[in-house]
Records
---
Amino acid sequence: MLYINCPHCGMRSQNEFSYGGDASVKRPELNKEVSDQEWDDFVYNRKSLRGKHLELWQHISGCRQWIKVERDTATHEIFRTFKADEEVA
Amino acid sequence: MTQAFRINNGGLVNREKKLSFKFNGKSYFGYEGDTLASALLANGVHLVGRSFKYHRPRGFFGAGVDEPYAIVQLYRNGETEPNIKATEQELFEGLEAKSVNCWPSVNFDIGAINNFLKIFLPAGFYYKTFMWPKSFWYRIYEPFIRKAAGLGVASTKHDNERYEHKYEYCDLLIAGSGPSGLSSAYAAAKNGAKVILAEDKPRFGGSLLTSDVNIGNQSGKDWAEGIIAELKTMPNVLIKNRSQIFGYYDHNMLVMSEKVSDHLPSTKKYHPNKRLWYIRAKEVLISSGSIERPIVFGNNDTPGVMLSSAAKEYLKVYGVLVGRKPLVFTNNDSGYETAIEFKKHGVDPVVLDTRKNPVSEIIDEAKNLGINIKNSYVVVAAQGYKKVKSADIASISEDKKQLGEIENLQCDCICVSGFWTPTIHLASQSGNKTKFKEEIDAFVPGVSKQNETTLGAANGVFTLDETLKTSFKAGSELSKKLTEKDYEIAIPNVVEKKSSQHDKFWCVPLPKGKNYKRFLDFQNDVAVSDIEIALREGYRSIEHVKRYTTLGMATDQGKTSNLNGLQLVSEIENKVVPAVGHTTFRPPYTPVSIGAIVGREVGKHSKPTRKSPMHEWHEKNNAVFVDAGVWLRPRYYKRGDENLFEASKREAKNVRSNVGVCDVTTLGKIDIKGPDSAELLNRVYTNAWLKLPVGKARYGVMLREDGIVMDDGTTTRISENHYHMTTTTAQAANVLSHLEYYLQLVWPELNVNVVSTTEQWAGAAIAGPKSRDLLQKLFPNSDVSNEGLPFMGYMEGDLFGAKARIFRISFSGELAYEVNVESDYGNLMWEKILEVGEEFNIQPYGTEALSTLRIEMGHVAGSELDGRTIPYDNALEGLVSKKKDFIGKRSLQRSAFTAEDRQRIVGVVPLDKQTSIPEGSHLVKDDKAQLPNPKLGHISASCWSVEYDNPFSLAIMKDGKNMIGQKLFAMSPLKNKVIPVEIVSSHYVDPKGERVRS
Ligand SMILES: [Zn+2]
């Protein structure tokens, strides 16, 4: 079970969180012309990386904040965590 | 019955307390502190079971967790448990156990014909033989295998024992309480670290209980006792016996199973049977020791052949002789320690050493005691069927290829030592890249992946002196980093005998003309010949060899067999062992009760049960409940002998003709506040929200980004910047997360807050033509007329002193209202509604009537919004704005979603107006068509229409728009029904929706 450092609450066990997928996906702006390809990339197409992956988790049984987690998908090592509005350098 | 093999004194058992027990129906005695294994051996019982494949007689091989054979079915306090190791089960008064794997009895076993008839199930037998013909599998092969094999019988009764889960956090978790575990625990504890020390056996001390050493000026055993006594007094130390750490998971999470009650005749009141610990440790010290490995020789599975360390443990811990004419077969000095213990107790052993001329202090001591030692000698084969009677022995050439003349030596047990295998399971589970250590012919932990350190014998360190030094140091340094304290500890002097180098010898060659079975994996009956077959047939990867032969796949996970298997593969393949590599170790290290894993989460405790504030009233009024998500909701209120069908019909009818009241507390409720609330709703829902006035409610549909309907419900504008959203019962949590996702990540610029208020409000739906009259009486000071509170209107009112929210919304299709009060007033509201409603013939109605009412109105619910439908499919396209953008809108342009013949909701009526259509039935054109019969749609919900008094269903069907009037068939192969039906509009009752506005 992963041990995730919620930037708001501190170290908490994985069972307090729910997974939210790739954090690098950006929703196309509203009221903007979007091509089929762009929309497919947003809704469906994911890289499924092996290795370092920036992903979303929600601390549902805690502060309810969505956070970003930089995790190795192969080893489960967590490198850094970020608040939703924090820039990932 | 006397305990013929118990020595007069010695051992750690309590001779004051005799315990009686039964094995295979026969009564015996043992002592408190015995295991079932030691008590049986004390009584001279060596035959405990039959082997898995060949049903060969089997006895005891080890004395603890490594035991591959002695697995029994245990009976305790009216319950039974399979797969119990006799070497781990502590004796208690009245214990009963039986052999497994034998039918009809352990002494006469029909399965053993496998052995004599040379069916001889070789490697891959199951794959090859039982594959063909296919039809034989269920009728012949499987029943045969099931009867012949298995490790006991699971109870079919409910398990009345209680199991607990516990979560712990610590600085250092230490696995094992031998010399290494005790030293590191002591050093860390002295530095003030929070320490958990876990020992799988009942007694702490590990190898110090059996080894002949001195630490400081005490015996090793006394030193251990002193350390444990001191650790127990320290508040920062938790020390647990009977506790096996069996799994090492990500981020230093370890799981430990504590046997709380297995050693007692019955579980004490309020105590669990087992306790499962989830421990998050900053540092993990693995001091799990090592397991002696056997030397492979002919018939090495005969009862009476056992590990020399086990023989020593039975003698030193339990005061039990495993034989009176022991033969010790060894390639290292450990065998001599066992021989010396025998000799000290007046028994004359013979030692066969594969080495030519070893020299060491231990060997000198053995020689001085006059022990008969034969160098360059091996056991070729054990003789005897149910018990060792003698051994065929021979001298062996220096290159270990040639055997001398075979001699027969009388003996009643063979104690074998092939050197030591570090127990690296936990380190390997944690992701440690293990490495092969040539000097000890075994794998040891290499580079750690997590915060784990392996010490002592588990790390391939076999001298006490070095173990203590490295362990004190590791405990001290790791804890110092965490506590910043540095307590000075003087590492005690050690007196131990030095050993000489072991012999790199692990398997005795077959003598000419002999074809003895030489077993590698004792539990799974994998012999040397099986590995040879697998390699001959082309299996190369050790993982494939393992699966083909089942080597190391038994419940003992190859604790005694892995390395010998690897040696064999490497020898045949002419590779070095590290190139062959070992198979991956996975948790659990040892079998764990399913009950312990499940814990308290059984039956109704497997998920929380939520009840509305009116639950008690429902109970008192004969409600029959149904699970709705995690909620319990009244399905119907039973009157007299009514069944579900009759009651729900009555309740629904009463709504259509008078007035009914339904508990709708379970609906999800989300409070939305902030200046941008309308903008958020406008983006989340498919319809327009910017112009909803204060005091008005609106129905809305929300989509996922892929265009599929996520949920529906009404949202009411309470005040300028304050909205009250309702969701379906099932989707409440998902909708909240969905809103939070967009507010926090996608549109953080929106100034809105959302919070769940589901449990803050109790809700009652009042529905039926007389609902307004009732409402007026409930709120005499409010104007609830059609003008004062029009359809989709909202007002606040005073309900006998309680502040109430009144919504004019309808799910039933009737004139209807929903009243919400703070949960604590829920009961007041409910009782007042029924009391005042009496003159209008009010009746409460449950979810079944609620469904009936919505189905015949064509209102969609979860069975239509099933994660596969878009708004059009549910006839909700009128709510999809063409002007503004919203979540999921772009997806609605997908060609499948805009197809002319897109699926759509329809109504379905059976032609005979009698036969109810099972939900899930398929709609087909021709009921006699060849299979697979093309499916046109499926029945999503069915009811008995109270308006027309005939069955009515909703269906989602292809090209539903153009299907009205078609005569088709509803087929349910599951219920074996074919029903001729007609497709009608989904709005079966009041299609113009006049009632809700009346
Ligand atoms: Zn948090």
Note: Helices of chain A lie at 36-43.
---
Amino acid sequence: MDTLGLLASILYQFGTNAAFLLLAAIGLVVILGMMNIINLAHGELMMMGAYIATIVTHRGIPFPLAVLLAFLLVAMFGAALERVIIRRFYGHELGALVVTWGISLIMGQGTLLFFGPFMPSIGIPGGSFSLGAYSFATYWIVLIGVSAILIAALWWIYQNTRFGLMARATMQKAAMAEALGVNTDRVYMLTFALGSGLAGACGALLAPTVSISPLMGQQFVAPAFITVVVGGAANVLLGAIGSSLLLSAVKTPVGLLFGAFIGTVALLLTALIIIRLMPNGVSFYLQRFTERRVGA
Amino acid sequence: MRLLHLVNGGEDLGRSRWFWIGFAAVILALVALPLYQTEFEASNASYYLLNIPLALGLSMLWGYCGILSFGQVAYFGIAGYAYGVIAGNLTETSWGPLVGSVGGLLLCAAVGAIFGYFVFFGRVQGWIVPILTLVFTLLLETFLGQTAGYQWRIGAVQLGGYNGMTGIPPFQIGNFIFQGYAFYFFALSLTVAVYFISRILMNAHFGKIMIAIREDVLRTETLGYDVRFYQLGVFVLAAMLAGLSGLLYVQWGNYITPSQVGLLPAALPVIWVAVGGRNRLLAVAIATYLLNWINYTLSEAGNQYAPVIMGALLLLVMLFFPRGIIVAIAELRWPWRRDVTPVSVQDRSA
Amino acid sequence: MKMQPAISTVNLTKRFGGVIATDGVDLSVSSGEIRCIIGPNGAGKSTLFALLCGIHAPDGGEILLGGRDVTRLPAFRRVRLGLGLTFQTNRAYHNLTIAQNLEIARRRNSARVDSDALRRYQHAIGLFELDQLTDLPARALPHHQLQWLEIAMVLAGGPDVILLDEPTAGMSPEETMQTASVLRTLNGMGLTIVVVEHDIAFVREIAHRVTVLHEGRIFAEGSVAEITAHEDVRNIYLGRA
Ligand SMILES: Nc1ncnc2c1ncn2[C@@H]1O[C@H](COP(=O)(O)OP(=O)(O)OP(=O)(O)O)[C@@H](O)[C@H]1O
Ligand SMILES: [Mg+2]
């Protein structure tokens, strides 16, 4: 019984870590993969989602609705950002980095000024159950499922919807897509909105599990960016799945044995080693592997 | 003679006789500062000055070589803490601070070299370097923040967690301790020296290759240059200059906390460099001095908006003066300016 | 006496995902030769150059430069061993001045730049009319001179073999012939030249031998006369094979 419990507990830890990495990175991944822009304000967009969800939940709105609201509001904010600022930096990789960094600074410090340093957080919905000597939070099990569903949904959107088709065309050859009548301008705006919205929703989803503060976005920066770096840009969705699983496989044992901080350091070291061994990230190899399979 | 020629090369602002006269006048005014300012004001000026090496390093890295780093403050912190530990353990001797300074710089070089080896020899895409430098900085802050316990004592020195490390010895050569005006002159002369060395370096062949790498990595490699080696070189150089600023900082304030390595301080150098004009060293130096002064004056007045203002400044500059405000001012058609030669080469890549 | 080839490949292969861009290529260019490589779009010409120069790593096969195996060497090492390359899309530093472009291209302390190489370089600068234009930004040059600038930059490194990827694309017939004449002169000064070209008039003008690439493979090889008489070569160009 207890070995079963231990196994379940390890699996649960692994799943929790992978889900956290995936949720922290997913909005970033969408924007990077489609627009080749690194959004350094990503953590602050998650913070914004968490604030929205927390505030409206305190007002008595059911949590799932709060998450949806966070998605919509942050997506709208993202669309506005794209219109006013981001669009001027397409093709300027480093310029986009710097400008989104400026946005993150303003958002973080601005929130600090408006809302003060703390906000009471919402409790974790759902209870917990135990298996042998090990206990499991229902909410985290739900989050693991949600992150799997999110990835599947994104995959489906890109493969099966008109937006997905246009987005993939734009991603591969913007000029060509434009010539074929795709409104690339709109695709970019929608993509940025989608990425921002996802960041907001994930921030909302994670809000009950972390403390809410203006600079909370920072805690997502390391995991999110490492996930993206390890994933690489060849196929971002595939990369995000591959790298969150891989990184979780590193972080779970190291974190259990040496604590959370060393776990995160292990993530950075893994990232350094991965880029030395496979500079294009794991997605490049996953992509090649699947292509070989299809080709054979 | 050849050195003079390099000083006056085209990769920085100002080559005319009038420029150099003005430059000399400003240096003279800075040297004479003790004549018209109090020791307290001179101490503040030291603080504005001591950030300049870090900014010049970032300028060479980002503006000249096209490698963006958000993590220069990490090296600032590494050198500061290393100095604190070494000099703090060698208080019995007069050469402790000297050993601490050298040790801090060497540690920066070593960490920068290891980090740079992985990043540049992996030939990663451009966006990965800034991200990893940022992550590195965040982890360093987290690490330093959890060193409050008694087990984080190195010899006689307590790392101190978020309370920071206190009582760091000032710089000292023989029995002479650099404090007050003396420290001001120390910081000033180091800053000016670093500026001239950087300017010579960027005008020399090394600088040309930096620019070539920024413009087109593949073309530069297929002209026979080991691009990775040059990237590593400038990265280590920038790390050491950030370290130099960190050394001066702890020698000036005698304390350091992990928040020096936090996200907000990490953003500031990028702002100084962008506002000045990232591929013009002098513009960066001026912007660093002025923005530090403004930032200090704002926060001194209890203005909590200072970080937001700095962020907004960065946004505005990136949107409207992508080549930098100081550079834009310098390149205005001043009425007395006769030369209409295109002012060197522009970096459009951002 | 059989001369050692200046550059050669054995069974060179490169895949991009499902596409086989280079498929078992055995190429051998003698020292002092001008070799033209022709083939329809997507034949794998640029990929072959990228492999020769070390920009892509091959999936199989070997590359020999002056008899030395360079298959695993990074690009800059091959350049230092005497290889030069221009790209299909011009990659001179467009934002820098011509003087800066050339100064960067002249590596310091390079043992390669012997008196022969230096003579070729200085000669080319003169023939390309670049010697007067030092302070102009490269992007202000007319197209054909920008192409010439990149060739001159490659020569500055003192190569024995240069690979030119469609150097005359976009040039007028006169400019094309002028380029041909400069290349012939340089060849007469000892330079081995491999050039990808679509313009058959240009090929006739300079090629000693011609290699036809098709779908990543060497389809035919021979003198200009042999190749132009080849029925199948015409067919692949017209998309009939
Ligand atoms: N980096 C790459 N990634 C994926 N496929 C590539 C890459 N480079 C080339 N290819 C593919 O390899 C094949 C050969 O391309 P290559 O550019 O070598 O042809 P080419 O003969 O130079 O054509 P062109 O005359 O148009 O220049 C093409 O099918 C091309 O799509
Ligand atoms: Mg080609």
Note: Residues 340-350 of chain B have pLDDT under 50 and may be disordered.
